[in-house]
Specification:
Elements: E1 2-5, E2 11-14, H1 18-34, E3 63-67, E4 73-75, E5 78-80, H2 82-92, E6 100-105, H3 111-123, E7 128-132, H4 134-138
Parallel strand pairs: 3-6, 6-7
Antiparallel strand pairs: 1-2, 3-4, 4-5
Length: 140
């Protein structure tokens, strides 16, 4: 705090705001440096509510990867192996413009199998992976 003496010799105290401004400038610089490095995730599309009494199965041209509870995988009702899943999907989507596929899991399928299937699908060049649940099949 500084003291200034006027003509009447009355002491007035004035706050010294220079250190406060220095601290604020340092905080602004810190927040500007941190902001671009905030993590971002994958974009998610919010699912829409299905119409009543209508099945939401994908059309026949769509690819559905089914994962059972014991780890078996199928592509459109055709049995496949985990090792061949990526190459098979890459061959199928090589000539397609729409890179959308669906993943269907049973109720007892572990999260690890579902995540592995989605990871292989994304690695095969599929940009949009939709999830099919049992409730979607019966349109509840």
């Amino acid at each position: 705090m500084a003291i200034s003496l006027g003509q009447h010799r009355i002491s007035m105290s004035e706050p010294n705001v220079v250190p406060l401004i220095d601290v604020l400038l340092v905080l602004i610089i810190i927040f500007m440096a941190i902001t671009p490095t905030t993590p971002t995730g994958m974009p998610a599309l919010v699912p829409q509510t299905p119409p009543k009494n209508k099945l939401l199965l994908p059309p026949d041209s769509m690819i559905v990867v089914q994962v059972s509870g014991d780890g078996k995988v199928m592509i459109n009702q055709t049995p496949a192996t985990w090792n061949d899943l990526g190459t098979t999907l890459a061959d199928v989507f090589k000539t397609r413009a729409d890179k959308t596929a669906f993943m269907k899991g049973e109720d007892d399928t572990s999260f690890g199998y579902a995540a592995r299937a989605i990871d292989i699908m994304r690695g095969a060049g599929i940009t949009n992976v939709g999830l099919i649940t049992a409730k979607m099949e019966v349109a509840q």
